[in-house]
Every structure is written in structure tokens, then in C-alpha cells.
Amino acid sequence: MTRPIEHIATVVRAGDGVVEVELTAQSACASCHARMACGMGESTRKRIEIATPEASAFTAGERVTVSVERNMGMTAVLWAYVVPFVVLLGALVAASLAGWGDGAAALSAVGGIALYYGALYLLRERLEKKIHFKIHKQ
Known about the structure:
InterPro entries: RseC (IPR026268), SigmaE_reg_RseC_MucC (IPR007359). The protein is an alpha+beta fold.
């Protein structure tokens, strides 16, 4: 079994079955081959909400470890970066092959991306059930 992807985080708030944490990219991220794909390479701080029945056991300011299984992390990368790229490229190529002008082809590609992210937004609850973050006290 592969090791999960882990980050040290600070609890921002906790309650109602949700713990909001702030992740800070560590120096280990600089050497990670997937740092740009996971999004930690482009920013030093990220905030995420983690649903857990033990939310009341955490307090603001507490340092915790947040983890996600590697296959779930790769699933998130797929939906957030790979599929939109394919949609963008597919719409652009299809519009160009249909004989549309450059401007119309570009607009169709942007429209395809907008539709994709709209669908992703509508299906967010379903996706949240597939990608599970775990939170542990240090």
C-alpha cells in the first residue's frame, strides 16, 4: 500500500462536523514531482474544509496533519486539470475543423470550459464523497 500525501496544517475553525485548516507548502514540496499538479507549487497557503465527526475535538490554532490517499489525489488532479485541458483542446479543434474562425473557435473552447466547470460545480457533492481528507492531531 502506498503512503498517503500528508501536509502539516493549522486549524482555522472547527465545529458543526467541519474543520477548516490552512496548509502551508513545505520545503519538501519543492522537490516533489507532482507539486504543480496538486496546486501547492503555485501558492504557499491553501484553505480546505474537512468533514469529520470529531470536529469538536479540534481547536483554532492547533497544528494537525492532513492526509489524502495518493489515488484520491490523482483523481482530483485528473478532474481539476487533465479533463478541462482535453475539453478545451477538443472544443478548439472541433470548432476549427468545422471551419469556424479563430475568434469563434476560441470562444467555443472557453464556453466548453465554462460548461465543464459548471457541471463539476453541480456534481461537487458527489465528488466530495469520493475524495476523503483525513485529519489527525499531532
